[in-house]
Amino acid sequence: EKGTYPHYMLKEIDEQPAVMRKIIQNYQDANGELEIDSDIVSAMNEADRIYIIAAGTSYHAGLVGKQFIERLAQIPVEVHISSEFGYNMPLLSKKPLFIFISQSGETADSRQVLVQVKEMGHKSLTITNVPGSTLSREADHTMLLYAGPEIAVASTKAYTAQLAVLAILAEVTAKSRGMEVSFNLVQELGIVANAMEVLRDSKEEFEMIAREYLSTTRNCFFIGRGIDFYVGLEGALKLKEISYIQAEGFAGGELKHGTIALIEEGTPVVALATQKFVNLSIRGNVKEVVARGANPCIISMDGLNMEDDRFVIPEVHELLTPLISVIPMQLISYYAALHRDCDVDKPRNLAKSVTVE
Ligand code: M6R
Asked: How many angstroms separate the alpha carbon of residue 109 from the centre of ligand 1?
């Protein structure tokens, strides 16, 4: 039940710190160390390449998950949109492991791929919020999200839960391979949960940003570099899905190869700046769009912030920033939809899970 909340989406956004804590609890052993099913760790270690298959928001989580797995466990990862993969299968490696990411565990496009790769004799792991769902039953292994039911069509807490579980998978695998992980993930996820609470208490700020930038605009761009780009893709999806504003996410450096032609006087451009090594280059991209009249909204991370940034998120580990930087995206989209009188929880033309191909 949504209780005192006007919408499930807002309730689910607010639940994210609690979901983080629940995930930590569920993946900790008696000594407080992170632990996952040893069969899953073996499957990861036997794989010469991992193929992540997902749709929509879960696909965006997969893009970030690739960074976690490659950087920590050093296993190559490809991320594919499920509806494309089935018809357009890339050349597979000798020992692939397929990871299906799906909140509902019922997405038909992903299931179609699972059926195909099972027939080919490949191993699979489903990361899902719904125990006993089709993708969970049919894959060799399952990792649960422990996010509680997600009712709003726009996925929020499932995305951050997917990222946390992918980080745990990457960390446990890395350690099992004798690789050094230079930070304590339990501690870092605790810091993430606290930072989420800070953002949860900053709602008026996001409502103002939505009012200022999005109440009448026709379109909006999201730019970032590295993992900020992936969060931008998710920000754009969230915004278009519930507010019907045409929104697109771009890699900061790619804009000048065409899309910059769309920038007009006042076009909102949300720029994410949470990664030290690209902080200056993304700001360079902001200057390029401002020179064409864009209205910039820079969301940066504490420590990397500069004058004129519109919002500064609390500092978290640089690999885990998507868990935090997505929350402004979720809240700005929520308030933009509200200001534009859209049906936040049940946007037009959409169903919670897409069970047809
Ligand atoms: O249940 P799934 O995670 O497999 O669903 C995938 C997409 O349909 C889903 O993420 C969709 O994009 C959401 N409505 C996004 O908010």
From this structure: 11
On the CB side of 212, how many CA atoms lie within 13 Å of its CA?
A: 12
Q: Is any ligand 1 atom within 6 A of the Cβ of residue 155?
A: yes
Q: List alpha helices for 76-217, DSSP H.
A: 82-85, 108-119, 134-138, 157-176, 185-200, 203-214
Q: How far is the CA of 221 from the centre of ligand 1 (A)?
A: 21
Ligand 1 pocket mutation pick from 8, 58, 79 by most atoms within 8 angstroms of CB? 58
128 CA: nearest ligand 1 atom: 3
Quote the CA–CA distance of 138 and 42 in Å, as a whole number.
19
The β-bridge partners of 357 are none
- Residue closest via CA to ligand 1's atom 8 equals 56
Phi, psi of 27 (to 5 degrees): -110, 20
CB within 8 A of 167, min separation 6: which ones?
A: 68, 185, 189, 319, 320
Residue 354 CB–ligand 1 contact under 6 Å:
yes
Q: How far is the CA of 126 from the centre of ligand 1 (A)?
A: 15
- The finding on whether 55 has its CB within 6 A of some atom of ligand 1 is yes
| β pairing state of 295-301 and 268-273 | parallel
* Predicted-complex ipTM score: 0.98
Q: Kindly report, residue by residue over 266-300, the tens digit of the pLDDT.
A: 999 999 999 999 999 999 999 999 999 999 999 99
* CA-based radius of gyration for the chain: 20
CB-count burial class (<10 Å; 0-12, 13-18, 19+) for 266: exposed
Structure tokens at 155: 């996925």
Residues near 216 by beta carbon (within 8 Å), at least 6 away in sequence = none
The residue whose CA has the least distance to atom 9 of ligand 1 is 56
DSSP code, position 71: I
Asked whether 56 lines ligand 1 (CB < 6 A), one says: yes
Predicted confidence (pLDDT) per residue in 40-94, tens digit: 999 999 999 999 999 999 999 999 999 999 999 999 999 999 999 988 999 999 9
Q: Indicate yes or no: pTM above 0.95.
A: yes
